[in-house]
Write a structure and sequence with these properties.
The chain is mainly alpha-helical and 65 residues long. Helix content is 86%, strand content 0%.
Length: 65
């Protein structure tokens, strides 16, 4: 991937992180078991997105364009 593609993907990941965080906040307000399972899934998704964002940041730093 080129540096510009990496930056573009990082911006997409950041947007996904923001959406997932907002949804997680909303879901945590609901006490039912289904919402709790959804919260766990969102937490796992957030962890994956944060890892991808970190990896992209490192790749951007290493790339030259």
């Amino acid at each position: 991937m080129s540096r510009s593609q990496l930056i573009e993907r990082k911006q997409q990941v950041i947007a996904e992180l923001q959406r997932a965080r907002r949804e997680l906040e909303r879901v945590r307000m609901q006490p039912d078991a289904r919402s709790q399972r959804r919260a766990q899934a969102l937490e796992a998704q957030l962890a994956g997105l944060m890892a991808e964002e970190h990896r992209l940041r490192l790749e951007i730093d290493r790339s030259k364009d």
